[in-house]
Amino acid sequence: MSKLSADLNIDNLKNKVKNYEIVIENTTRYREIWQESLKQQVREDLEAICTEAGIKYELIENSQYINLDSLILSLGNTKSGIYQEVEPEIKSHLIRHNGSLLYQQIFNGKILVQVHYPMIDKYLEPRPPKTIAIYRPEEIKTPFILRHIETLISEITAWEDYDDDENVQHSKIGFTLPHELPASEDNN
Asked: Rg of the Cα trace of the chain?
């Protein structure tokens, strides 16, 4: 037994090292699964579900960085209906990005799923994306992909139907006084 082992109990540290090694092995395995089969399965599921549901879409693969690549289910770009008249016959339209669903492998091999909201160029700042979840590759199944598309459609529908009629609790500044002061017994 080494002097270090005699003086200190390093079993806890050894367990942490074993756990770290397992996590590193998982990262490698997750990356292989994504490249070998999962990316294609997600692509096929997205295409089949959107086609069956009648959703107009474009599937974009971003593979600038291997093992950080992504699939983007884009609902496309259109004229926003908002434009500037430059001259009587010339209109400068603002472009509307209709929203998208992102599947991206992140640094540890897991898959990030996000909704990216619609936006109109030069008019609105983009709303931050909504993270649906981060999954280990074996967790992503066709029923989850269907729910992700449903979430996308629900979120962009809510974005489209935005108004300020929601019940929002506004914070009050100053003193809070009741509308009517209670009558005291002395005032009778």
From this structure: 27
pLDDT of residue 164: 64
The C-alpha atoms of residue 18 and residue 34 are separated, in whole angstroms, by 24
- Compute the Cα dihedral for 157, 159, 163, 164 and give only its sign: positive
How many other CB atoms are there within 10 angstroms of residue 77's CB atom? 13
Question: Does 186 score more than 80 pLDDT?
Answer: no
| Residue 70 · residue 103 · CB < 8 Å | yes
DSSP secondary structure string for all residues of 51-89: HHHT---EEEEE-SSTTS-EEEEE--EEEEEEEEEEETT
Q: Rounded distance, CA 26 to CA 11, Å?
A: 23
Q: What is the DSSP letter of 13?
A: H
Phi and psi at 80, nearest 5°, equal -80, -15
The pTM of the full predicted model, rounded to 2 decimals, is 0.78
| 109 and 137 Cβ atoms separated by less than 8 Å | yes
